[in-house]
Amino acid sequence: MSNPKIGIILGSASDAPHAQKIGATLRELGIPFEVTVASAHRTPEDAAHYAQNARPRGLEAIVAVAGLSAALPGAVAAQTTLPVIGVPVESGTLLGMDALLSTAMMPPGVPVASVGINGAANAALLAARIVSTHDSAVAEKLQSYADEKAAKVRSSRRDAQTFADLPMAPEEALS
């Protein structure tokens, strides 16, 4: 893929599994992306420069993944007017609650969209929805993606093994 539209910035290399999940979804939707590592605490200049250079480089949104105090999404959002999506990571003694609150509780003027703890897939979908506001091909792929997920849920209702001893509602109850 060329010319990334989404930037994924990780607070540490240990967050790479989340980048893999985000990347898998973006690849499925045909959205080019890139990944880097920059810590809000250990390499704050790198995080700031990445955010400041994102728009001129053609990025349309940034997904910032961080655990513990999760300062990275806010630090990135403070340096750009692009949409920033924070992915709080489960870690430490608070199991990600500190990261969730740090990501969600931003001061006025520094917005960060936050997904749930370990919500990499939803972060990718939110970034895709941002791109889809002006890219009809992505909008169509998102609709197909949603249709496939809905079909999977509908077909699960017919799984006789899972629901063997349960009285199931008739299909007409759902239409």
TrEMBL record:
SUPFAM superfamilies hit by this protein: N5-CAIR mutase (phosphoribosylaminoimidazole carboxylase, PurE)
Pathway in which the depicted protein is active: Purine metabolism; IMP biosynthesis via de novo pathway; 5-amino-1-(5-phospho-D-ribosyl)imidazole-4-carboxylate from 5-amino-1-(5-phospho-D-ribosyl)imidazole (N5-CAIR route): step 2/2
EC number(s) per entry: 5.4.99.18
Compositional bias ranges of the Basic and acidic residues kind: 149-160
GO molecular function per UniProt: phosphoribosylaminoimidazole carboxylase activity
Keyword tags: Isomerase, Lyase, Purine biosynthesis
Source species, domain of life: Bacteria
Annotated stretches, region: Disordered: 149-175
Domain PurE span(s) in chain numbering: 4-153
Residues annotated as binding substrate: S12, D15, R42
Catalyzed reaction equations: 5-carboxyamino-1-(5-phospho-D-ribosyl)imidazole + H(+) = 5-amino-1-(5-phospho-D-ribosyl)imidazole-4-carboxylate
Similarity remark: Belongs to the AIR carboxylase family. Class I subfamily.
Tagged with keyword Lyase: yes
Protein name: N5-carboxyaminoimidazole ribonucleotide mutase
Function of the molecule: Catalyzes the conversion of N5-carboxyaminoimidazole ribonucleotide (N5-CAIR) to 4-carboxy-5-aminoimidazole ribonucleotide (CAIR).
